[in-house]
Design brief:
binds flavin mononucleotide, TIM Barrel, eight-stranded parallel beta barrel, alpha/beta, 13 helices, 15% strand, 368 residues
Length: 368
């Protein structure tokens, strides 16, 4: 029995947001103790089969932390010690904002799920940039960007540009979040016309950055919602491909409430994540993968909670993976457990790398 499973009943008596803060404060403090590096070598799974290169970035393994867990980049070193291949920080907005009133994060324990309506509570792009300037890079760091709640739709592009200009020189990749359900109007930026305008502005800002000889330029990924129809996914894909974006992250949380949910909290407003999202998120990966035919990498996220789920997402077409909710239920040993199990599954089926298995389970007529 792990230390986490012993402390979980106590933690779960706290409200979900306080428990998150407490665990991260303890873990960060523990990681500063002498000997912490040695102790966490157990959590590091190094296996050549797990190494992969996506959009010019090298990853020692394909499993990353999803956005929302460390919005302000406060726990980068401590989270990297869990064995993640990369971390996605944010979502940040240009100006700091408080987010929605609490409570705004709910555990659906019977469903191994969470509902959140955080509403982009964050300290702002400048605070994250300041932390990143002082942080040594141990794993690739993505930065997820969005717009402030009170920014009107017709100037949303300016918010993304402000975040991009500040954070792009400090990030391995920028994730363009047009899919969180908790900022009114944000998801409409997935529609073809506003999406085309937003992406063309960001790509032009990246070209400007590339023009300044010393500045490194990050990859740009777009993060989509699981609640789009096939027609709107097709339209978004056309725009994304034409714009020259480097990858697609699928999926964000869902506003759907599957009838299978058992927890009393299941009708709380917000985005649902965790096990009940798994099937839908996998279907979206499979659908995009069959449309894309390998032209763009897909980053799969939603309900990944073990080696089998991770492997299935890769077979469905994901080149990289992310998770959030399962970490709350399974604890810090989960990352190493997934990576060990994933390496075994790949070997069992005769693959010599993650890349070789990507999309190996996709039939060409995948439905969503
Ligand atoms: C509490 C919470 C906060 C989140 N905040 C963000 C966010 O700020 N930006 C974002 O793009 N996704 C955010 N997400 C969505 C996750 O990044 C992920 O897409 C989703 O939870 C599905 O993965 P999971 O089932 O492994 O949790 C958040 C999720 C949770 C549970």
């Amino acid at each position: 029995m792990s230390l986490y499973s012993l402390t979980k009943p106590l933690l779960f008596r706290l409200d979900a947001e306080s428990a998150h803060r407490l665990v991260m404060a303890i873990w960060s403090a523990a990681m500063r103790l002498p000997g912490a590096g040695l102790a966490t070598t157990l959590l590091r799974v190094e296996h050549p089969i797990l190494q992969t290169t996506i959009a010019g970035m090298h990853f020692s393994n394909p499993l990353g932390l999803a956005a929302g867990f460390d919005k302000n980049g406060r726990y980068i070193q401590a989270l990297a010690r869990l064995g993640f291949g990369y971390l996605e920080l944010g979502t940040v907005t240009p100006r700091p904002q408080a987010g929605n009133p609490q409570p705004r994060l709910f555990r659906l324990v019977e469903d191994r799920a969470l509902i959140n309506r955080m509403g982009f509570n964050n300290q702002g792009a400048e605070a994250l940039a300041a932390r990143l300037r002082q942080t040594p890079r141990v794993v690739p760091l993505g930065v997820n960007i969005g717009k402030n709640r009170d920014t009107p739709a017709d100037t949303a592009v300016d918010d993304y540009l402000a975040c991009f200009r500040l954070l792009a020189p400090l990030a391995s990749y920028i994730a363009v979040n047009v899919s969180s359900p908790n900022t009114p109007g944000l998801r409409s930026l997935q529609q073809a016309e506003p999406l085309a305008q937003l992406l063309s502005a960001l790509l032009s800002a990246r070209r400007d950055l590339a023009g300044q000889a010393s500045a490194p330029t990050p990859a740009i990924f777009v993060k989509l919602s699981p609640d789009e129809t096939p027609a709107s996914l097709d339209a978004a894909l056309t725009v994304i491909s034409a714009a020259g974006i480097d990858g697609i992250i699928v999926t964000n949380t869902t506003t759907e409430r599957p009838t299978s949910l058992r927890s009393s909290r299941h009708m709380e407003a917000g985005g649902l994540s965790g096990a009940p999202l798994r099937e839908r998120a996998t279907a979206v990966v499979r659908y995009l993968s069959s449309s894309l035919g390998g032209r763009l990498p897909i980053i799969g996220v939603g309900g990944i909670d073990g080696p089998q789920a991770a492997y299935e997402r890769i077979l469905a077409g994901a080149s990289l993976l992310q998770l959030y909710t399962a970490l709350i239920y399974e604890g810090p040993g989960l990352v190493a457990a997934i990576l060990r199990g994933l390496a075994q599954l790949l070997e069992r089926d005769g693959f010599s790398s993650v890349a070789e298995a990507v999309g190996a389970g996709v039939d060409t007529k995948a439905k969503v």
